[in-house]
Design goal:
de novo design (two linked rop proteins); 0% strand
């Protein structure tokens, strides 16, 4: 999962660079996308060095929240036609898959920590 979220972050950064070249792009919103998108992988990296199960769950929860925010920004940019919709479709699909995996990780870790 770490490699997947790292590559996702790289794709977000490449999209950011491309969006900055477009004259109608709002840099404030784009930075929010980059911040949230890069934070997913960063928090998962931190989770691998968690000091406890609770710390692991906390880091994964933060990654999950950042994934939700990233998904929101991607959808917003697509719907407001910041760039052609095709620029966002694969990233939106990938963010959905990351959300599903992170949700399962958090849910299963919580269940396993109670037993």
């Amino acid at each position: 999962m770490q490699e997947r979220t790292f590559e996702f972050s790289c794709r977000i950064l490449r999209l950011y660079r491309y969006m900055l070249k477009q004259s109608q792009t709002n840099d404030v919103f784009c930075r929010q996308l980059v911040r949230a998108g890069a934070s997913i992988g960063a928090n998962l990296e931190e989770a691998t060095a968690a000091q406890s199960r609770a710390d692991f769950i906390s880091k994964c929860n933060i990654a999950l929240k950042e994934a939700r925010e990233t998904h929101y920004w991607l959808r917003l940019f697509r719907e407001t036609e910041m760039l052609p919709a095709s620029c966002f479709e694969n990233l939106i699909e990938e963010s959905n898959e990351i959300l599903s995996v992170l949700t399962a990780i958090v849910k299963n870790t919580r269940i396993n920590s109670k037993t």
